[in-house]
Design brief:
With 125 residues, this protein is mostly helical. It has 6 helices and no strands. The chain has 2 domains: 1-62, no CATH class; 67-125. Helix 1 (2-25) crosses helix 2 (31-44) and helix 1 (2-25) packs across helix 3 (51-62). It starts with a helix and ends with a helix. The relative contact order is 0.07.
Amino acid sequence: MFTYIRSFLLIFLCLYIGKGIVWITHIPISASIIGMLLLFILLALHLIPGAWIKDGSELFIKHMTLFFVPVSVGLMDHFDILQTQAASLLVGTLGSSLIVFVVIGKLNQILATHYEKKQKDKELL
């Protein structure tokens, strides 16, 4: 029982710190994204052990579908708006996906070339 309480407290603490950062800085990023980034940094730097949030995060993931029910109902309530804006939503989604694919592809080419050059340099030694 204590492990769940500790997990939830740490997760929600990171969320509320994220909300505080957004409130102070007025950056246009979701507070939950900043909170999860903060949680990731804390875990990556081993400032908090992963076992401390394991139970709570597994419980959240197990019941994740429940978090999407309100969003789904909201989409059904405003389906007429989605229909009128479908073209712009489709263009934006496809365009941003294309940009991501191109950037990742170019980055992969750069990294592969760098890796191959490093391997050739090692072979020459």
